[in-house]
Description:
219 residues; 10 helices; mainly alpha; 63% helix
Amino acid sequence: MLDAKRRARSFGAATAGSALAAFAGAAIAAVIGYEAVSVALARVATPALFARYEAETGNGAKLPPGFSRARIETLLAVQDPGFWTHGGVDWSAPLATTVTQSVVKKFYFADFKPGFGKIRQTLIAQFAVGPLTSKNAQLAAFIDVNGFDSAAQKWFGKPLAELDDDEFLSLIATDNNPKDYAPGTPANAERVRRIEKYLAGLCERRGFADVWLESCAES
């Protein structure tokens, strides 16, 4: 009788474990399938979403209007240093947000939420926007959807292309967070100082995720 009870308990535990594993496998398969459909739909939509920016940049042959090569490189050094070489996602810091992922967040989500939203954002950046659009079109879209020109008008009363170098750095230093890092605030001035040290090679970035350039702070 005792052996029978033990066998029954063992069978029950094994059955429960198998059911749990099967459920987990089915759930994972469902998520993968759902995200695969999301990427497929994104690939269909991408050419139309980026048509304007491809036209502005001559299908990637030209930089975004009003930007010099030096200013593009300054922007990327701060926002996405691996931009020219990654396929949409910087896998050295997958939780950080690349230029491409930033555009994906604006174009492909009505209400972005972390978690599964981040997974979908990453997959669309890597498998839809990255392979189907030019780098310069991605940059033009990034500048547009993040409101750089309107911010230049708001803070400095002039178009983005007319900012001087100090004003341009101050605008970049807001990091799309004007509430806490608005031009003219001590926080903005401190981030500009860190960016200047970083660009001059006087300190190093601690990986892509180090958006606040911690090693460039005063020691």
